[in-house]
Write a structure and sequence with these properties.
single chain; alpha+beta; 4-stranded antiparallel beta sheet; 20 helices; disordered N terminus
Length: about 625
């Protein structure tokens, strides 16, 4: 009997930190790290933004699924089973990344992981209340939050840093290619692809070879027709040799061709009206060519080569050739990258371009194998360490009938609350701006400068967004919580709403100026994340305020479902919109999206009790 008592009252220090670290990891990887992974593997913004946003669905329906967790088996068993399943799913993702249909397969696996993670959340949060006394629950609330933050830092920071290190050390050596604008250079250069068909195997390790070593481009203006024809010819050669994929035109398989035509016209309207446009000129900046090939055939895998500006004058930019694919069939067929000068550039200046060929698939596979091992170890650890609270029991039939009746009643009482429509609108709109920014923040940092991004490496994104950003987010949350307890939610709601939305403007600054300084980028990301952490405290307090009364726990779960819905729906269109209008105008749109929440905010503030949130003396 005493042995059983020991098992039912194990110290929270033995299991609370590890349990909430395990709770945070799959959520962060499914919602955040997956976005960076797909971007690095060449998936389009529109495609991964839509499908990864749909992964919020298990958290949206979590309140509907929670009764099953309550009724069937113990919460302890659900925790152990969910961690085991998540570990297996990590292994499946690792072994799926080299498949030709890796996107479809991994999205399906991520969906199962999202569902398992949401189930784990339900069981872990319920078990927390059963495994600890009320006093200890209050004591450990800060501990669980801290280790959840550590999970965020792992998923958004450490894993990306590890991916970057593995990618750098397992791929081919990178190669710098200086590009110099020269007023004395000949005006027009021709593509000399035919002179380079007889490439022979070279000794030594596999490497990228670029011809020429240094590129000189005339600053004299050229005819637009010539520029267009050379870019088109380079693209056609790259497609023919298998270095890039041919852009497939949309097939009109719709049962309603008029509807499909209407959608195409709508996209064209969005692009022409709100997209970034180049001015039409009588003359254009001149171009130069870089020919890239491998020194010998790769043995087992395809080689992806990324090419773009590393540093230097931004008036020298890449107009074609951000990513090339090489294999055993086309290693000796040069891929052509086209670099163009801005038409106003009339002096000698320099930019440095770089070709990289990291083994991205291997890097992510290693990371997911590591996470799989970690989760199996966590599963094993919790199998023996989690306590056995007497109250953690599956329900009998009589209790089940009562529970189902109570479950239905929770929905009725929630939607009968005073001003519930207004508060639901708040839950959906408070993060309307942030929900779109967060989906493309990491892709923006990773994207080539010519595509409007900042061209950071995976490790640099891990430092900026996943380490510095998480530290600032945590600091903002702590300060926000402290001030809310001192002044109350009503007095701070306006300032916190400003804090979570206004700093998003730093992305407009970065999109337009594309700073090379890593310190500046870290400052901008840190500022935005600090504001997010500070402002999100208001959201959580509002959730608690809405949930007050009978069925407090169930009603809080419903507010989290609306939160997930408010993140899912806007996130689905972000990639599609960004590809139509570009990063610069997309981030302006993100700022426009703060208008709805500020339109209803005065009404919300009036409905909140002035005393709510104040710390009791």
């Amino acid at each position: 009997m005493s042995h059983e008592n020991d098992k039912s009252k194990r110290s929270g220090w033995l299991w609370v930190p590890s349990l909430y670290y395990a709770e945070g990891i799959p959520y962060i990887i499914v919602m955040m790290a997956s976005v960076a992974m797909y971007k690095m593997l060449g998936v389009s913004n529109a495609k991964f933004a839509f499908w990864t946003s749909l992964l919020y669905l298990p958290w949206v329906v979590k309140p509907l699924w929670s009764p099953v967790v309550e009724v069937i088996s113990r919460k302890r068993n659900w925790i152990v089973f969910a961690q085991f399943l998540i570990g297996i799913l990590f292994f499946l993702i690792a072994f799926s990344l080299n498949l030709s249909i890796f996107f479809t397969v991994t999205i399906i696996i991520f969906w199962f992981m999202a569902f398992s993670s949401a189930t784990h959340d339900i069981a872990a949060d319920g078990f927390y209340m059963l495994g600890l006394t009320e006093k200890k629950q209050s004591f450990f609330v800060g501990i669980r939050s801290t280790f959840y933050r550590f999970a965020m830092m792992t998923g958004q920071g450490l894993l990306l840093i590890l991916v970057g290190l593995i990618e750098t050390n397992t791929g081919l050596p990178s190669q710098d290619i200086p590009v110099i604008s020269n007023p004395e250079q000949q005006i027009e250069q021709k593509i000399k692809i035919n002179a380079r068909h007889n490439i022979k195997v070279q000794n030594g390790d596999l490497r990228i070879i670029s011809v020429p070593d240094t590129i000189y481009i005339s600053t004299q203006k050229a005819k637009p027709a010539y520029i267009d024809s050379m870019i088109t010819k380079a693209r056609q050669i790259n497609i023919k040799n298998g270095h890039i994929e041919k852009i497939k035109k949309k097939k009109n398989n719709s049962e309603n061709p008029k509807k499909q035509a209407g959608l195409d016209k709508f996209e064209l309207f969005i692009k022409n009206t709100f997209g970034e446009h180049l001015e039409k000129r009588a003359a254009a900046g001149n171009i130069g060519f870089v020919y890239l090939h491998l020194s010998k055939p790769p043995k087992k895998r395809n080689i992806g080569v990324n090419f773009g500006r590393e540093k230097g004058n931004q008036s020298i930019s890449l107009v074609h050739g951000e990513h090339f694919k090489f294999n055993q069939d086309n290693w000796n067929q040069p891929a052509i990258a086209v670099i163009q000068l801005h038409p106003n550039l009339n002096k000698k200046t320099k930019a440095v371009f770089i070709s990289r060929a990291g083994n991205t698939e291997l890097a992510w596979s290693v990371v997911f194998i590591f996470m799989g091992i970690l989760f199996l170890l966590l599963c094993l650890y919790h199998r023996f360490i989690l306590p056995y609270p007497r109250s953690d029991q599956s329900r009998n039939k009589e209790k089940n009938a009562n529970f189902i009746a109570e479950f239905i009643d929770t929905f009725k009482t929630f939607f009968k609350k005073d001003n519930i429509g207004l508060f639901v609108a708040f839950l959906l709109l408070f993060r309307l701006s942030e929900s779109q920014l967060v989906k493309l923040a990491q892709p923006f940092l990773l994207d080539a400068q010519e595509a409007g991004g900042l061209a950071l490496t995976a490790s640099e994104v891990g430092i900026a967004y996943g380490t510095v950003g998480i530290i600032m987010l945590t600091l903002g949350g702590l300060i926000g919580g402290f001030l809310a307890s001192k002044f109350g939610l009503r007095k701070l709601l306006l300032w916190m709403t400003l804090a979570i939305n206004i700093p998003n403007a730093v992305y407009i600054y970065m999109a337009y100026l594309q700073p090379d300084s890593f310190l500046t980028i870290n400052f901008c990301v840190g500022l935005e994340q600090f504001g997010y952490g500070f402002g999100f405290a208001a959201y959580m307090l509002t959730q608690i305020y809405i949930a007050e009364g009978e069925y407090k726990t169930a009603h809080f779960a419903l507010t989290t479902a609306f939160m997930a819905l408010g993140m899912m729906i806007p996130g689905m269109w972000t990639g599609w919109l960004q590809e139509l209008i570009g990063y610069k105008h997309f981030f302006i749109w993100v700022m426009i999206c703060i208008i709805p929440i500020f339109a209803i905010l005065p009404m919300i503030i009036k409905k909140i009790d002035p005393e709510f949130g104040l710390k009791e003396e």
